[in-house]
Amino acid sequence: MYIVIGAGIIGASIAYELARAGTAVTVIDAGRIGGGTSSASFAWVNSHNKAPRAYHELNVAGMRAHAELRNRFEQSPWWHGGGTIEWEGSTDPGRYRQKVALLQSSGYAAQWLDAAQVRELEPDIDTGAIGDAPVAFFPDDGWVDPVVYSQALLAAARQHGARILPHLGVTAIRRQGTQVTGVTTADGGTLDADVVINCTGRWADQAAFPPALQIPMAPSAGLMLFTPPVASSVQRVIFSPQVHIRPDGAGRLLICRNDLDLALTADTIPDPRWPQVAALLQAAAIVLPVLRGVPAEALRIGVRAIPADQFPAIGALPDTSGYYAAVTHSGVTLAPFIGAAVADEILNGVSRPELTDFRPGRFFH
Ligand SMILES: Cc1cc2nc3c(=O)[nH]c(=O)nc-3n(C[C@H](O)[C@H](O)[C@H](O)COP(=O)(O)OP(=O)(O)OC[C@H]3O[C@@H](n4cnc5c(N)ncnc54)[C@H](O)[C@@H]3O)c2cc1C
Questions:
Q1: Whose CA is nearest to atom 41 of ligand 1?
Q2: Positive or negative, the Cα torsion across 175, 180, 181, 185?
Q3: How far is the CA of 211 from the centre of ligand 1 (A)?
Q4: H or E element at residue 75
Q5: Among the listed residues 126, 63, 109, 112, the one whose alpha carbon sits nearest the alpha carbon of residue 288
Q6: Cα 7 to ligand 1 centroid, rounded to whole Å
């Protein structure tokens, strides 16, 4: 029996693969399916700025795994292809050209666009706002509805016999010596397991886990702004230096910026009067004039599940058996690959080379 703690995009992916392999799996989540970071994410599937090499390759493996997963399902309503249109505002366009050339040389699908091609792909973009910056198109990128994805994979896992227990917190990890034997839940119950898999994302260092089983975390918060439905034809991720934009269904657009300078915490209640909100809307309206005068319909804070050194923590923990952690940023891109690789490691006792650089043991020396 395997217990997966956390029904976000990572836990759902691992549970799906374990159940598909014919094993008994129980997924436990303190809240609703996908209600953690997976419900507040830009959710862009890509591998653009993912240094070093091993991390780039891991994200590329994630992109490949997304395509394989889609082929396995009759319908994949979570997936939104269409690629990315990107430009950088650097004063040194040569640097951006070099970055794209490097991606191309590694086999990453990328091509240059002139202004007419940009307008053909995204007629709403004011190409005047791009100026002389070189523009690249990455056709294999996409974005995902992480909650739709998690729901679909857990529904498939359930068909293979998995039990899904939402709204039930894990309050303790049970151990006998160095062997993890199961969990205690908020209703006072206990569940036995051969392996407990910690997929709690940004909560991976919570006190319910003994210190030796916590992953040191450095979460950061990001502000996401959602427009009301807008009569716009935007179909893909637009990644400009001032603002990142993608559709979010029913005509809404999601607008954010990675390096937005806001002292946010998970508990911050976003305020539409913040100057940064006006700045985001203004920057978005320069790229997409159709957004002129459009207010924010909703603001959401997302908290990134980032292990202390920024890189994924995936694997068993030193001096402990029956326990496995799978905690990472970029989890939307990585999820289907992590699901398959973790199930392979747990069920077949193999060590996947793609994960070698990302073992949680590095935090415990
Ligand atoms: C602003 C922002 C932008 C992002 N942009 C991108 C992007 O463009 N591309 C990309 O690939 N990634 C992106 N990410 C990262 C990505 O969203 C996350 O890596 C991913 O959603 C993490 O999923 P998860 O399943 O690990 O965590 P979560 O979705 O947080 O799931 C963890 C679950 O564990 C449960 N849990 C916690 N403690 C317990 C307990 N004791 N008992 C039971 N259940 C428990 C929680 O309720 C939660 O549902 C972004 C994140 C943010 C915040």
A1: 170
A2: positive
A3: 21
A4: none
A5: 126
A6: 9
Q: Give the model confidence (pLDDT) of 270-320 as tens digits.
A: 999 999 999 999 999 999 999 999 999 999 999 999 999 999 999 999 999
Write the CATH number of the domain with boundaries 84-139+221-303: 3.30.9.10
Is 305 in contact with 331 (CB distance < 8 Å)?
yes
pLDDT tens for 223-281 read 999 999 999 999 999 999 999 999 999 999 999 998 776 777 878 899 999 999 999 99
Ligand 1 centroid to residue 289 C-alpha, Å? 33
Distance from Cα 150 to the centre of ligand 1, integer Å: 11
What is the residue extent of each domain of the chain? 2-65+146-216+308-364, 84-139+221-303
Q: What is the pLDDT of residues 142-157, one digit of tens each?
A: 999 999 999 999 999 9
Atom 48 (ligand 1): residue with closest C-alpha? 36
Q: What are phi and psi of 141, to 5 degrees?
A: -70, 170
Q: Which residue's C-alpha comes closest to atom 10 of ligand 1?
A: 330
Q: Which CATH superfamily is domain 2-65+146-216+308-364 in?
A: FAD/NAD(P)-binding domain (3.50.50.60)
Pick the atom of ligand 1 nearest to 32's CA: 49
Strand order in the sheet with 111-113: 111-113, 135-138, 84-87, 237-239, 244-247, 253-256, 221-226, 298-303
